[in-house]
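request received
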Amino acid sequence: MYDDESGSAFFRSHQELLEAARAAIRSRQSWSGYEGRVPSQDDHGASARFAAQLGSPFELVDHPGVMTLQTDEVSPYTREALGISYPRATVDELVAAARSAQARWSQVGLEARAGLCLEMLERVFRRIRESALYAMHTTGQGLGMSVAGSGTNALDRGLEALALAYDQLARVPNEARWARHYGTVEVRLTKSYRTVSRGPAAVVACASFPAWNVYPAVFANVMTGNPVIIKPHPSSVLQMAFAVKLFRSVLTEVGLDANLVTLCTDDLAAPVTQDLVTHPGVRIVDFTGSAVFGSWIEQNVRQAIVFTETSGANPVVLHSVTDADAPIKAIAGAVSLFSAQMCAAPQNIYVPAGGIRTDDGVLPVAEFCERLVSALQQVSTVPRRAAAVLGAVQCDRTLTELATLADAVRGRGTVLLESAPYAHPEFEQARTAGPLVALVNLDDRDLYEVERFGPIVFVIVSPDAETALARAAGDAASLGAITSFVYATDEPFIARAEDAFAEAGAALSINVTGPMPASFSAAFSDYHVTGLNPAGTATLSDDSFITGRYAVVQSRRPDTTPTSRPTSTEPALEAQETHA
Amino acid sequence: MYDDESGSAFFRSHQELLEAARAAIRSRQSWSGYEGRVPSQDDHGASARFAAQLGSPFELVDHPGVMTLQTDEVSPYTREALGISYPRATVDELVAAARSAQARWSQVGLEARAGLCLEMLERVFRRIRESALYAMHTTGQGLGMSVAGSGTNALDRGLEALALAYDQLARVPNEARWARHYGTVEVRLTKSYRTVSRGPAAVVACASFPAWNVYPAVFANVMTGNPVIIKPHPSSVLQMAFAVKLFRSVLTEVGLDANLVTLCTDDLAAPVTQDLVTHPGVRIVDFTGSAVFGSWIEQNVRQAIVFTETSGANPVVLHSVTDADAPIKAIAGAVSLFSAQMCAAPQNIYVPAGGIRTDDGVLPVAEFCERLVSALQQVSTVPRRAAAVLGAVQCDRTLTELATLADAVRGRGTVLLESAPYAHPEFEQARTAGPLVALVNLDDRDLYEVERFGPIVFVIVSPDAETALARAAGDAASLGAITSFVYATDEPFIARAEDAFAEAGAALSINVTGPMPASFSAAFSDYHVTGLNPAGTATLSDDSFITGRYAVVQSRRPDTTPTSRPTSTEPALEAQETHA
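response:
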C-alpha cells in the first residue's frame, strides 16, 4: 500500500534540484539540471543492453495489451528492423486503465507527487546512454544529439514543466478561513480547495524527436494529477517505451498503479491516433507532429483541451554583417544539424537582391550562395563530421519529398546544391542526406510557404532588406514559425525586426554565431513556441502550458471553531476586513 | 502625448489596493477592495443623472459608429423604453479601431498599465449608485443587489483578475543573461522577453448580470495588452455603456487611444454576436450567457481562444439536518434572490423518499415541501421584501417559459407553488414573478436536466440520499453545474459529497445557512466555474483565466558587455552553471 511518505522521501532527496529549477524558471538564466553531471553507474553496459533488446519483446510489467511485433520500427542507421514487440492495447483499454489509475493518483499530495516525478526523471537520466541508443536507432539522430538533445535537454524541458506545475499548484492554498458581517451577524466559513485533474491525457509524439516534447507534456500532466497515455510514432517507439518503463518502475516500487503512464502502439497500416485523441474519455491532448495533423486536431478534437507543437517555415533575414563568414557558418550549421529534421531549423533565407552589406563592401547574392553552399559542404561531404552533425534521415518519405521538391525547383528557380547522401563511417547502410539549396524568388511562395521537412533551404531573393523582413515576419504570422534569425549591424533595423517577429509570435535570434547552434533552445531560459502563430499552441514552458490541465474545486462550510478570528500575516487584510 | 509617468502616477495612488488584492488572491481570506468604503462625492446626484439620461443619446466621445436608438432597452420596472441612443458601428469598424488602439497600448509598461486599470475600476466605484440605477433598470435587479452584486462584488471580481494578471506578468523577467561553455568557448547571450497580446477580445455579456463577468474579462484582457470590444445584450446596454465611458475617460485623459475599450450594440432583430465572435480579427472571446449559445461558441469559434460561463442545473442534496428551519430558509433565500436569474442559483433539490433525518425525527417529503413553499412565500408575498430580494424579471421570455414549464410539470408531477407576480411597492408596472415549485421524480429528468432560467425549483424525490448524491453529482458532471449544496450532519456522507462534487467540478456549500445567501460567491476567496463540466470554461479567477491572452516572445543576441558574468542571487544557479 502506498503512502505519501514514499513520495516525500524522493522529494527530500531531489528537493535541491527542484528549488534550483524553480529559481531558474524565474531568472531565465543559464542552468541545467542534468548537463555536466557525472553519468551514473547504472548506465554502464548500455550498448550490451541495447544489443540484447533488439529482436526481443519489450517487457512492461502489468501493462494492458498483447505483445505485438512493431514492424514499422527500422533503424535509420542499419536499415534493419528492430524486431521488438510491445504490448498493444485498444484505446478503450488504455483509457480505462488510465482512469483507474487517476483516482488514487489524485489523492497523492503535492510534495509526494513532485518527489515521484523527480525520481522518474532521475531514472531516465541514470540510463541516459541506453536511452540515447534507443533514440538514435529510431530517430536517426547522431549519438551526441541523442545524449544531449534527446537526453539532458529533453530532461531539462521535463524538469522545467515539473517546476512550473509545482509553482502553480503551490500557489493554491489548501484552505482559508473567511468571515464577513451581514448586518450584526458575522458569517464565518472554512473553505477547502483541491486541485482536480482533467485527464486522462494523450501525448502524441513525433518520430524524429519524441523525448523533447513528451517529457514536458508528461510532467505537466502527471504533476497536475492526470494519467498519461504516450502515443509514439509507430516507427519510433523504443525510446518512449523505455521512458514509460522507467516511469512505471517508480510507481510500482511505491505501490501505486503503474498505469498512470501507459504506451499506445499502432502500425502505419492501421493508425489509431485519431481514435485516441477523439476518444470521449481523453480530456487532454498534447501533440507534436506535422502541421496538417496538428491542424486536424485543433479543428476536430472537441472533448479535450489541446496543446500542439507543429512546425513552421522558419525564416532568416540577412541585412548587414561585419564579416559574412561567421553568419554563413552559423546558418549552415543550423541547417545541417540533424539534417534539419527539427522544428527550430531555419528554412527560408531572405537576402536583398542588391546583396548583403559587410565591412568589406557588399556581398552579392551569388557570392553569398556560393559561400553558403561551400559551408554546407564542409559538413556534408566530410563523413565523420556529417555523421556527427547530420546524423541519419528518419524515414524514406523525407527523401522522396526532397526529390519531388528538387524537380519543382528546377522548373522555376535554381538548385544550387543537390541533396546527396554521404557515406556514414560506421553504418554502411545508413539513410543519409545532405542539404538541398534552392535559389528562388519572392513569387515562388508555393515552394517555400510550408515547412519542408528535412534538409532543404530556400535562398529567397527580395528587392531589399525591408521587404525581406516584412515578408519573413508576415509569413511567420500567417504560415507559422517557431524561430527566426536576423543578421544586421543596423540597430534601427534590428529594433524593427524585434517588433515584427514579436508581433508574429516567433522567437528571434539576432547575430547569433559561434559554437552554439543558432537554433538551440535552452530549457529554463528560452520560451519555445508562442501560440500566436500557426506553428502550435503549446509554449515550453510558461504558465499556459500548465493551466487547464486541472481546476481548483472548492467546498465551504460553517466555521464552528470557537472565537477564532482568521489569522493573517497581512495587516492590510485585517484592516480591510473590518470594513466588510 | 502619453508617457508612462501618467500611468505610473495612478499606480502609485492605488498601489496599496493592488498589493492587498495580490495578498488576498493567495490567502483566499475575506477581503474586498470596495465594500464598506465610503461612497464618493462624485456619486451625488446619481438619480438626477439617471433621469436626465433617459430619452437622451449616450455620448461616447470619439467612439466609432452612428448614434442609433436602442429600441430593445425597456426597464423591467417601469416597462418603459429607456429611449437611449448609443453609437452603433459595424464589427469591421470596431475590430479595426481595436487593432489600432492595441499597437500603442502594448507598449505601455506593466506598472503604468496596472495604474490605468486600477483607475478605471476606481472611476466606476466613484459612480456606483449611478451605475446601479443603470443596472437596475436594464437587468431587473433590486437596487441593493445593483449596488452590491453589480457594484462592489463585480468590481472586486475585476480587481481580482487585474491582480492575477499583474502577478502572472510580473513573473516574466524583462531580460536575462545567459552563458554556456561549448568546448573551450563561452557563448554569452542577452535575452529579452516581451509579453505580446493576442487580442482583440470580444466580451459578450448576459442581459441579467453583465458587470460581474464583464469587469474580470475586461481587466484580464486589458492588463495582458488586449483591446476589448464589449458586446452587451441589446436589452441591457446601459450599465456597460457607462462603464465603457468611464474606462475611456481614463485613456483619453492620459493621451491614449480610447478605442482600447469599445461598445458593440445591435438589435434583437438583427443580432451581430455571431459575426463578432467569428470575425477573423477577433482573437479572444469571453462569453457569458445561455448554455446553447455558449456551446455554439465553443464548437464554432476557431480563430480565437474562448472563455465561457454559461449555466448549470445547480443541485441541492438533503441528507440530514439538526433543525430543518435554517436550511429550508437558506434554500428559499438562494432561490428567491433576484428570482433565480443567476448562474449560481440552486434549481434541483434532491430529497430522499423516506424523508430527511432531523434531531426531532424524520421530516417527511410532503412536510419539507410545505415548509419550503411557506419559506418562499414569506419572501414572495410580502411586496417590500419581494422587491428587495426578487427584484424584477429581466425579460418577457422568462415568464413565457415559466408558464410552458408549469404546464409540462402538471402533466407529470405536481405544481406545489404556482409562480405569481407580486405587486412592486414602488413600480406598479414592474415585471415580477415569485417562484414556481415543482415536485417530480427522478425519471422526469427531461424537465430538470437543463438550466430553467428564472424562478423555478424542482423537488426531486430520490429513493435515498445516496442515490440523490450520485444523481446530483452525475448531472453536475454531465449537464453542468456551477454551485452545489449539501445539507448533512453525517461526516462520511459529507466526505463522499465533497469527493463527488469535486470530481464533477462544481463548488460545494455544505450546511450553509444564515444571512449570507448560500449561492454567494466572494471574489478573492471563492473560485467560480471550474471548466471541468459543461457550465463553462472560465474560472473566476485562477491562472487559467489569464494565460493564453498573451504570450512571451523572446529575442536574444550576443552579450558584448566586457567581462560581465551573469549575476545571480541564487548561489545554487551559479554552482550549476560551472557544470554547463
